[in-house]
Amino acid sequence: MIEKALHTNRIVRKVGVRIPNFVGLGTILTDTDFLAIAPERLAKNLATSQRLKIFPAPFPIPPIPICQYWHDRTDKDAGSRGLRSAIAQLFR
Question: pTM above 0.85?
Answer without folding.
Answer: no
